[in-house]
Each structure stands twice: as C-alpha cells, then as structure tokens.
Amino acid sequence: MKYFNLLSLLIFIGLISCENKDVETSEMVSDDYFEFSDQADKQQGGVRMIPITTPSGEFKVWTKRVGNNPKIKVLLLHGGPGMTHEIYTSFDGYLPQEGIEYIYYDQLGSYYSDQPTDSTLWTIDRFVDEVEQVRVALGLNPDNFYLFGQSWGGMLAMEYALKHQDKLKGLIISNMMASLPEYEKYAKEVLGPQMPPEVFKEIMEIEENNDFDNPRYAELLMEHHYQYHVLRKPLAEWPEAMNRTMQHVNPDVYVRMQGYS
Q: Which of 59, 149, 155, 170 is deepest in the core (most CB within 10 A)?
C-alpha cells in the first residue's frame, strides 16, 4: 500500500484515461487548471469551510480544492473515522498531471474541521448526510462527481452510493471491505496469527481485560500490525504526512465508531 492508495489511484487514472483515450495528457491539463480568479475560494487557495446542518446544530467542515476540471471532480473521503485528509497529499504528485480536479475534505470531528463532543453525531447515516451537504455546497453533479473512499471512507462512500447513486458519476473504493464484523474476524483469525505468538497472545490479553489505555497496546500494534497492514513500510520510513495524520486522530470519534485497534 505504498503511499497509501497508489494502486487504486493508478486504476482510477487508467479508467479516466480510457474514457479519454483519444486525448493526450498534455491536452487534458488545460491552461486554467490552476486558475482561481473566478472561484469563490481564490483568497484561500482553494480552501472552504462548509457549513453543515446536524441534529445538534450547525458546524463547519474543511475542504480544499486542487485544480479545475468541469468533467472530473473527485471528493476524497479519508479513513478513521476521525483521521484527516493529510494521508492523501501524495496525490499532488499524480492527479494534477492528469488534469483531475480533486477535493481534500476533513469530515466533522476531524482535525481541520469543527470537533463537537456530542457522541450522537457519530453515526453512518449522519456522515452520509454530511457528504451530501458537502456535495451540494461544492456544486458537484452527476456529470462530474467522482467519490473516492479509503478504509472507513470506503464504507462511507458505499453507504452514500446506496442512498444517492443518482448524484454520482463514479465511485472508487480503496482498501475497504463491506463488513466490519467480517474484517474483525479476518484480523483475529488470519492477520493476528501472523504475528509472533507471544505478541499476539499479549494483544489478546490486553483486549480481554479492556486495558486499551495501556501504552503497550498501541506499541505492539504499531510495531507488529500497522507497518505491515496499514502502510507497508518500516515505521522509520513512514512519510511525514502519515505521521501527522496519526498525531491528529480524534480518538473520541474513532473509538466510538471503530473501537480500539
């Protein structure tokens, strides 16, 4: 999973290229790709704080648009939940040269957006409604709206598509399955036993004792799970953006919806 979603990214670029097989890349990147003068977010370099209406009141979520392409606009749904858009900054090295417009987006509760403490907000249905409000605010429509979801964002993207398929032109799912219980079963029965036996035993004991605040738990997961199944690089080689994302996780949202892991 080098640079997080590179395979899915390349597949997506390939699909877009197939739709435009007669158009050279140099022609796809129009002269106004980085033109902001006619955009409402021009003073902020593409950043917009979008108001979101929820059962607990109005909040704002952070977005940042990169590029201009009236035919291809990709909204990025990050993982977690409670993580940030920062893990996708490597996209800057790939998508602009293909002329693809993309929008970074921190979901409600994430680092760059408002972080309410009302735990009743952390439901799939409420996040689906949030994505729809963001779509409307950004002016994305069925002629140009591609939704990219990775990890938790992939599950959110699937749920959004089930409810709002008519709003989408394309859906890209990266590094996610459709059932969290099935994943947890796979993690315990397949991934866990790949660890050294004594490490897996210690992790299971911590979980059985609900001792999740034990720093040893995070230490074991980082060393024996994250660098093999989250980002397949030695921890010392993780990109700065990934480390920043890990530092910015909102545990209140993550644990509420995902549990300890």
A: 149
- According to DSSP, the residues that pair with 64 across neighbouring strands are 47, 104
Model confidence pLDDT, tens digit, residues 23-78: 444 455 677 888 777 777 777 788 999 999 999 999 999 999 999 999 999 999 99
Cβ partners under 8 Å of residue 172, min gap 6? 8, 11, 12, 74, 146, 147, 148, 149, 157
Amino acid identity for residue 73 in this structure: K
pLDDT digits (tens, 9 = 90+) for 1-19: 444 444 455 445 455 544 5
The stretch 149-156 carries a mean pLDDT of: 95
CATH topology (fold) of 6-176: Rossmann fold (3.40.50)
